[in-house]
Amino acid sequence: MTVATPPAPTAARPQPSKPRKRHDRSSQQRREALALVVPSLVPIVVFSVLPLLQGVWYAFTDATLRRNDTADFVGLANFGRLAGDSFFWNSFKIGIIWAVSVTLLQLVLSLGLALLLNSNLRFRSLTRLLALIPWAMPPVVVAIMWTMIYTPNGGPLNAALGAVGLPSDTNWLGDFNTALPAVIVVGVWVGMPQTTVTLLAGLQQIPLELTEAAAVDGASAWQRFRAVVLPALRPIVVSITSLNFIWNFNSFGLVYVMTEGGPGGQTMLPMLFTYLEAFKNRNIGYAAAMGVVLVIVVVLLLFGFLRSQFKKEA
């Protein structure tokens, strides 16, 4: 007779630690994220952050572009000199007039053009292509073309004005009263395509059912624009206005080719003033202090503008 022996008790298997697995998985995910982010951060740090920090450092030195020059720390001397520089602050006032005027006119005219291009026009594709032509032209070519248009003797603008009996001897870029408005017109013309395309893309995202329902309710075209189109475009308008203001305030190439800041400093934009101080007068430290002040002012202006817009949306 055999007696069945009970099975030997097996040792309890150690249960895997779930928190430990989750910890290992999250650590691996962090390493993978770092491996993806670091290669993109390196060029940003090397080509953007380090030059920016170097520029800020130069603002506190007496660095120049002279040969074998040494940059010595001078503290806030450059900023103290800048506070009493009336030429710089006059150029700053001109820069604000230039940037605000060009940005607002670009927005209004581009919105009208985008509404027109969004309608059922004949040859709509050709019209959209023609609207992009200023965007495809290099700024130097635009500046030379408009300088020829503004030529006081025999220019097409004065010739057209003379043909309708208006004064035809205006020196548009050489007169104190017309130089700044003349370059503002060129700035608006050359920047309109980008704003128009952005607004046109926003208009095409608005559902037709909304405007059709408003039309069925008896809303006029202006009421549909105010109640339906404009609120839908508001985020795009805020974004493109902010970007255009930064771009227009910092750009000076167009004005430099057309007037070089003249006549009598009437078109001397602050970035052009800074450029001339750095590379014509060779005062890198003083020009860097101008750049630091301009960046701070632009950031504060944008912060106030965006904050007011976000408060309206809240």
Describe the model.
- The protein is mainly α and about 325 residues long.
- It has two domains: about 55-85 and about 285-314, no CATH class; about 100-280, MetI-like (MetI-like fold).
- Helix content is about 70%, strand content about 0%.
- The protein is built from 13 helices and no strands.
- α2 (about 75-85) packs across α13 (about 285-314), α3 (about 85-120) packs parallel to α8 (about 180-205) and α8 (about 180-205) packs across α10.
- The mean pLDDT is about 85.
- This is Multiple sugar transport system permease protein.
- Pfam families: BPD_transp_1.
Strand content: under 5%
Number of strands: 0
In CATH terms, what is the architecture of the largest domain?
Orthogonal Bundle
What is the domain tally?
A: 2
Separate helix tally: 13
Mean pLDDT: 87
Instruction: Give the % helix.
Output: over 70%
- Intertermini distance: 90 Å
Integer-rounded radius of gyration: 30 Å
Largest sheet: none
Assembly state of the chains shown? single chain
CATH topology of the largest domain: MetI-like fold
What is the CATH class of the largest domain? Mainly Alpha
- Overall structural class, as computed from helix and strand content, comes to mainly alpha
What's the overall geometry? flat
Spans with pLDDT under 50 lasting ≥5 residues? none
The CATH H-level superfamily of the largest domain is: MetI-like
Spell the H/E element sequence.
HHHHHHHHHHHHH
